[in-house]
Amino acid sequence: MAMAFLPMVTLYFVLSFTGIFTSQNLGWDIVNWHRHEMVFGYSSAVIAGFLLTAVPNWTGHPTPKGSQLALLCGFWIIGRFAMLFSAYLPIYVVAICDIPFYFFVAVAILPALIKSQNRRNYFFLLLLLFQSIANSIMHFGDPELGMRMGLNIIILIMLIIGGRIIPFFTENAKGIKIYRDPRIEKLAMYCAIGAAILDIWRFAPMLSGFALLLAAFSNLWRFTQWKTIESLDEPLLWILHIGYFWLVVGMFLKALDLFGFHIPNAVANHAFTIGGIATLTMGMMARVSLGHTGRPLKVHNTIILAFIMVNMAAFARVFWVWILPHQTSSIYLFSATLLSVSFILMLPIYFPILTNERFSKKV
Q1: What percent of the chain has a predicted confidence (pLDDT) above 90?
Q2: What's the CA gap between 142 and 176, in Å, rounded?
Q3: Phi, psi dihedrals of residue 64, rounded to the nearest 5°
């Protein structure tokens, strides 16, 4: 669903934003709708898919399948339609359809975590509940605050998941041992949490900027432990390493903006979203879909092209817009097209993988 959803929302936004057509069905302004659907639409589907797949491996207990999973998917779809046609629906109806999804995901993984006493991953429940609160704030309170809260929580989730799977996948694929200093791991996460809290509330921009700078340097230090150079001949690895690095770039850019370097806020945000979130989630979907269906961990050349295109889209949206502001509309369209096509390229290859029977041997 997420593979198809992202290109549709991206192209719809850019065509509306550039005035190619007018979206009269939205009860929200087009920018806030776009931001909402990326954080509370696309990202929620990817995070739900990851947790519903990973939690059984972590705990040895199942998460919802069959009709229960279909019900959860159906609620996500209803939320997307409610947002798309929000101009024709009462505000509370849109909110009821959209806000509870992250809460439902928390409920879905809760029994497995409790049965296994998997306290190490209880914090995911808290983050999912905070996302529902952030979504509520965006619907009924302050859209800017709700978006900052939602995006920062997504970044934290990406940092946590990335820090687990990227070294693990690299070790398995390359047959090497990656030593991760627990002190650096803790420092990187504590700095990221502190930076997220300060960025959400924004009561002291300079302090927020300093915290983001610490988070950027500590996560870059963490990243240097993962032997990225050895992953560059494996597309399923380098796409994940680059995605994590984009998150670090986003922290640096946002810190510079808060220090008064006049970097547009959207530049840093798109380093996080297109660069970090889209790249990481594309890589995770590509890798995990093969691994969990028992297929060889090798990707088609078309998927390698998609990996390259999503990074080109991020580079254009982050750096070209910053350097060439007089060409903003053209660059928006170019970046959105690259991003959309990159995900569209995955559909014909991964749809059969995800809908057919798994291979008999898991790889």
Answers
A1: 69
A2: 48
A3: -55, 140
Q: pLDDT confidence of 264, banded at 50, 70, 90?
A: confident
CB distance 7 to 340 below 8 Å: yes
Task: Name the one residue in this structure whose structure tokens are 């705990």.
Answer: 59
Helix (H, G, I), strand (E, B) or coil at 19: coil
pLDDT score recorded for residue 359: 61
* Segments in 175-315 forming alpha helices (H): 182-201, 205-223, 235-258, 265-270, 279-292, 301-315
CA distance 289 to 297: 9
Task: Report, in angstroms and rounded to the nearest whole number, the Rg of the chain calculated over CA atoms.
Answer: 20
Q: Side chain identity at 347, as an amino acid letter?
A: L
3-state secondary structure of 139: helix
Kindly state the average pLDDT of the residues 143-150.
Answer: 94
Task: Please name the residue ranges forming H helices in the chain.
Answer: 2-17, 30-36, 43-59, 66-84, 91-98, 101-115, 123-140, 143-174, 182-201, 205-223, 235-258, 265-270, 279-292, 301-315, 321-323, 328-355
Cα–Cα distance for residue pair 127/248, rounded to 1 Å: 21
Query: How far apart, in whole angstroms, are the C-alpha atoms of residue 242 and residue 232?
Result: 10
- Quick one: tokens of 193? 């949490």
Nearest-angstrom CA–CA distance, 235 and 341: 18
- Per-residue pLDDT tens digits for 228-238: 999 999 999 99
Q: List the one residue out of 311, 168, 302, 293 whose CA is nearest residue 237.
A: 168
The string of pLDDT tens digits covering residues 172-193 is 899 899 988 999 999 999 999 9
CA distance 54 to 58: 6
| Global pTM exceeds 0.70 | yes
Instruction: Report how far residue 323's alpha carbon sits from residue 316's, in angstroms, rounded to the nearest whole number.
Output: 10
Residues 130 and 153 sit within 8 Å (Cβ to Cβ): yes
Task: Give Cβ neighbours of residue 131 (< 8 Å, ≥ 6 apart).
Answer: 40, 44, 102, 150, 153, 154
pLDDT of residue 361: 47
End-to-end CA distance of the chain: 24
Give tens-digit pLDDT for 2-14.
Answer: 778 888 888 888 8
